[in-house]
Every structure is written in structure tokens, then in C-alpha cells.
Model the fold of this input.
Amino acid sequence: MMRLPYFRYLAPKELEEAVRLLAEEGPDIMPMAGGTDLLPNMKRRQQVPATILGLRNISALKQITNGSGLSLGAGLTLTQVVRNETVKKHYTGLWQAAVQVATPHLRNMGTLGGNICLDTRCSYYDQNLGWRKAINYCMKKDGEVCWVSTGSKRCLALSSTDTAPALISLGAEVTLVSTNGERTVAMIDLYQDDGIDYIHRKSDEILTKVSLPDADGWRSTYWKLRRRGSFDFPVLSVAAAVRMDGNTVIDARMVLGAVASAPVVVNEAVQGLIGNPLTDEAIANTVQLAAKSARPVKNADYSPPWRRKVVGKIAEYALRELRGDDMRAQRFKIARHELV
Done:
């Protein structure tokens, strides 16, 4: 049995207090909302903070505000996000991403902010302490070598967040708060392709909310491939969004998930769609370009060549769904959910 290490737990009720404690405690403290990722990592001794800063009691992190767009508190559980009718109707890609995270039990605990900040994953890293010690650890924790590619100078652990690709395709922003004040970062700029230093959130910052722009004219979707159809981390995901004027695409975005240490934005691949209807030929050209942007490595289930090959097919399903094709049968085959 893997047990948690000893730690001190702080549970502030106000955001200002939480920010102050985070600054005062320094590198030995980590924030936690639902704990569905951090606590298992602590059991495997991947992360061993001396103090955990519990964020569950801070009501300011659970607010939903409607305006020209939609603001979602980072402390909202994924279940609360899924049950929000505005999300389901106007930001469908985010709804589809959130509803496919893990299981209902974990969505009841896990939060939107936690999924955005989800630690990168790797088949060499996500093992118990004894297993990792037997291979002399890895670059991401306690070692010097990336066992995915021993010649690599950086960690190749995989970005496995579901909501981030969807939010990037929707043009979302996040707000980060520290004792130095508040700053807003576009989701597209929040990540970098490094398995260790994968997110531009400073250690003394708390992610407080996600801001989505007006969805007028936009359609969005999220498709996910995983080993276990009903629940699992993605081994490949595609988030896509198009803005339509009648049958004509006037703007388009596409993001690939779980093929690198950060979500891979392939907006160049969808530029050919703009000014044109979503024809079979246009979709075929787009998915071919998108597949070329994916360079998965051997750090997850399935072989890298197969995962890269399937990128085009999943991207095709996403664009066909945005066109209005009935993709329910294919959805159920892949996701074990209706998702409509």
C-alpha cells in the first residue's frame, strides 16, 4: 500500500490569506483544490510538499459570471462545469472535454483550475517510488536521464490535460493572483514544451478564474482517444472551433493534446478553411497538415507512429462534427459517451 507522506494542511477561507500564505511558505508549499492529481503523486513521492494549501473553502474561486463572455472560477469542480447550461450550449468543446475527465467520482472532486495545471505524465515517471528508484529515477524527478529519449536535454513528459486544448481553441484567458497583484494570461501562452517547466504559473501564484470570450457564431468540439474508453488520460485529443457565417468559415482554431509536453496549436493547418465552406476536400487538406504537426514519442500508451497516424482521423471527425454531420455513432465507439 502506498501511503501519503506527513504534511501540514492549511485551509484559508479568503483568497487574500491564501496568497499571503503561499508567498510566506516559499517552495515547501503547494496549493491544492480537489487533490485528484496531487495526492496520488505524493503517494508515489513524485511531489512531496511539506505544506498543502487547501483552496476548497475559498468561495471567490467558485464564482460564475455572465457578461460579454463567461467567467468560471478555477475552484469549480468539473461536475459543476459540466452541469452549467451556458457551457454546454455555447462552449460545447469545453463541456465535452470536462465530461470526459476521469470518472464521475473524480469530477466531483477535481477542479477546472486543477485540470488546467495538471502535472505532465510519462510511463517512466508515473510509477511508484521503488520502480523509479530501480531505474535510477528520471530527469523529471531525482534523476538526470529522460528515459523516453536518453539523448534528450529536456524532459519529454506529456501534457494530459483535457480542458486546456478546448480552452485554447475557444480563445480563453486565465487570471493569476499573487502578493504582487493580478495578471491575465492567454491560455495559448500559458504552456511551454517542457515536461518539467510546463506552465507559466509562478510558484507564488494562484489561478483564480478562466475567462471565455463571447461565443457568438462559434462552434466548438473536443475529441479524445484513450486506452480505456470510459475513463482514462488522453493519449491523443483534438479541440477545434470554427466561426461560421452561414456555411462559410470566417475563423478557425485547432489544438492537439497529449502529443507533446504542451498543447500543440495547429492554427496554420486550419487557415485554408477560412473563407470557404467545410467541404470534404477542405477537411482532408486540413487534417493532413494537422497530422504533420504531431510528433508523439514513446511516453504513453500505443506506439508513436500509430498515434501520429490517428491524429488526422480524429481531426477529421472533429471538423465533420462542426460541419453538422451526425457523428454520434463514432462518438460512442470512441468515447463510450453520447456527448451531444
